[in-house]
Amino acid sequence: MNRLINRKEKYEKLKKIFHILGIVSIILSIALVIYLIKGLDILNNPDALAQLIKEHLFCGTILFFIIQIVQVIIPIIPGGVTTVVGFIAFGPIIGFLLNYIGIIIGSIILFAITRNYGRKFILLFTKEKQLDYYENKLSSPTYEYFFILNMLSPVSPADILVMVTGLTKMSYRKFITIILITKPISIISYSYFWIYGGQLVKNFF
Q1: Lowest-pLDDT range, 28-37, 101-110, 116-125?
Q2: In angstroms, rounded to a whole number, what is the distance separating the alpha carbons of residues 198 and 191?
Q3: What average pLDDT does range 181-197 have in this prediction?
């Protein structure tokens, strides 16, 4: 009985730690955006970040690739920010490849972890009410289409849906096929929306 109580207490502490880390990651992401706009002036000089990366090309590439994997497995880092940074820093081709491969690897690992550890792992990052909402979708015969449409969308809670899908009987082959096909669309549309959308806002004002 004491062991069960201790496990529950440790689990609750772990949840709090991840929630705090989530808040910290959001603050750091906002600080990064401010630095890119104010410090490097990327709206007027979009090559500034690329130049900075080129000075530390090997380390910068490896670090960014690892970050893209980790931000999927531990979904407390806003992945949208790092995805856009990848396009700006490495250009459209290398930036896309680093984003795509990193996110695919991270998604497969996240799917596998959830399949092994179930709801308790998901609840480290989201509230039970939100998880219940998505679990209700699992009983629908159209869940697979729901999952595909959300993977195509650049603004869906992709990481949560990957975890929820890990609770289903979907095979690894089908899951990997879906994300291999859908992720390029969401990555490109999200990144280019923010890159060119930022320029349009700048021109408007």
Answers
A1: 28-37
A2: 11
A3: 80
Q: Please check the confidence at residue 199 and state whether its pLDDT lies above 80.
A: no
Mean pLDDT, the chain, rounded, equals 78
pLDDT computed for residue 200 by the predictor: 45
Other CB atoms within 10 Å distance of the CB of residue 132: 10
Q: Which helix (H) or strand (E) is 175 found in, with range?
A: helix 172-204
- Ramachandran bin of 41, using left for φ above 0, alpha for ψ from -120 to 50, beta for the remaining angles: left
Tokens 């959300």, residue located: 150
The pTM (predicted TM-score) of the whole model is 0.76
84 alpha-carbon distance from chain centroid = 12
Q: How far apart are CA 95 and CA 89, in angstroms?
A: 7
Kindly provide the b/e burial profile for residues 164-202, where b requires at least 16 CB atoms within 10 angstroms of the residue's own CB.
bbbbbebeeeebeebbeebbbebbbebbeebbeebeeee
DSSP string spanning 9-57?
Answer: HHHHHHHHHHHHHHHHHHHHHHHHHHIIIIIS-TTT-THHHHHHHHTTH
pLDDT for residue 187 is more than 70 = yes
Residues 31-37: contacts with CB under 8 Å, at least 24 apart: 32/81, 32/85, 33/81, 36/85, 36/88
**Cα–Cα distance for residue pair 175/167, rounded to 1 Å:** 12
Note whether 162 and 152 are within 8 A (CB): no
